[in-house]
Design goal:
Blueprint: H1 7-25, H2 32-37, H3 44-50, H4 54-68, H5 71-76, H6 83-95, H7 98-106, H8 114-142, H9 150-164, H10 174-190, H11 198-213
């Protein structure tokens, strides 16, 4: 068999089919053969040539979705917003990203997997937190954010909002969900990052409850 001249097209097709199946059946209910069956003639070997496992496909898919809808790029160069406003807009865009939310729900049980959780943490610390720190530094420069520790603050923010508020990791009732969000708000108000207004509180609560209601 000749070498594939367009491997990026093959990868894109694998990710497209995988996303469709993950959303339709749930991540845990999809096997590699299901993906192969939808690829129109590609073999299992072709899939494994690009991805070593289903987990690796999911990791690449999550990265692709983030890059396509990256809220940091959309707000970073908006001169009409100060740093704190940029931060609020990043959160709002992320919470309203239906494609991301649908994938979060489809893969929610996987967060219990220690290896996958480690992958999520690595992405949060190495990709999301540095982007967040850049926004915080803009806020420090324009005076809208008061902190001397942008790196540490960004790391704490992504951990609390992406891990502590995740119902699969820390199960909560609906009433307790808002209580936890308010605690996060108060923590960051104290640390000089008053990002949570009423709109964001309600959006966070809505998304958290949606995730909780889809937790098995």
């Amino acid at each position: 068999m000749g070498r594939n001249k367009y491997p990026e097209i093959t990868v894109e097709k694998i990710l497209e089919v995988s996303q469709k199946l993950f959303l339709e059946k749930g991540y845990d209910n999809v096997i590699i053969q299901d993906i192969v069956n939808e690829l129109g003639g590609l073999t299992k070997g072709a899939v494994y040539h690009h991805f070593k496992s289903k987990e690796e496909i999911l990791s690449a898919l999550s990265k692709s979705i983030f890059e396509k809808n990256n809220p940091f790029i959309r707000v970073k160069n908006d001169k009409s917003l100060n740093g704190l406003q940029k931060m609020k807009m990043v959160m709002k865009l992320s919470l309203l990203d239906s494609e991301k939310q649908d994938m979060d729900i489809a893969t929610l049980p996987l967060i219990k997997n220690p290896r996958y959780l480690a992958t999520v943490l690595e992405s949060l610390m190495n990709v999301v937190a540095p982007l967040l720190a850049e926004i915080i530094e803009i806020g420090i420069e324009d005076g809208s954010i008061q902190t001397e520790h942008p790196k540490q603050l960004s790391e704490l923010f992504v951990l609390l909002t992406n891990i502590w508020l995740t119902p699969t990791v820390f199960p909560t009732g609906n009433d307790e969900t808002m209580e936890k969000i308010i605690i996060v708000k108060n923590v960051f108000n104290y640390l000089g990052l008053p990002v949570f207004d009423e709109e964001l509180l309600q959006l966070c609560n809505k998304v958290a409850i949606q995730l909780k209601n889809n937790t098995v």
